[in-house]
Write a structure and sequence with these properties.
Number of strands: 2
CATH architecture of the domain at 5-87 and 124-139: Orthogonal Bundle
Number of helices: 6
CATH class of the domain at 5-87 and 124-139: Mainly Alpha
Order of helices and strands: HHHEEHHH
Oligomer: single chain
CATH topology of the domain at 5-87 and 124-139: Arc Repressor Mutant, subunit A
Protein name: Rrf2 family transcriptional regulator
Radius of gyration: 18 Å
Keywords: DNA-binding
GO molecular function: DNA binding; DNA-binding transcription factor activity
Length: 150
Amino acid sequence: MQLKKYTDYGLRVLMYLAAKEDNERVTIDELSGIFNVPRNHLNKVVHQLGKEGLIETRRGKNGGFLLAVDPADVRLDQVIRRLEGDEYWIDCHKPECAIFPVCELKSLINQGKETFYNFLSNYTLASLLKHESEIRELWGTPIQVTVDKD
């Protein structure tokens, strides 16, 4: 099982915002440089995080975004479900599987998925910030790699 890059970027954005020392707004360009991720990917993620109420966004000259919730209130299972779309991990209908009526695979996989989410329900965004000062220090130096600025 592998999380989508979209979810990975969303978690990174939330961690970055939670580790910020001040209430200074962050821009897509700043995140693009820090994470070495194209702007257009981050725009989509930031838009959804804003719709979910996890970040506050503002357009214009003094625009940007910041964390809108307490990191201790952001459960990882809920964030990942929202970003992943909580889709089935096995699709027995595209293409249609001949053994679908008697197959146990989908049931086992779904139980594993729920076990995964139940485990993550014990952790919050704050749980990811045990080394907050080191995180800030490491993210304070953007990666010097050119990215597509689409």
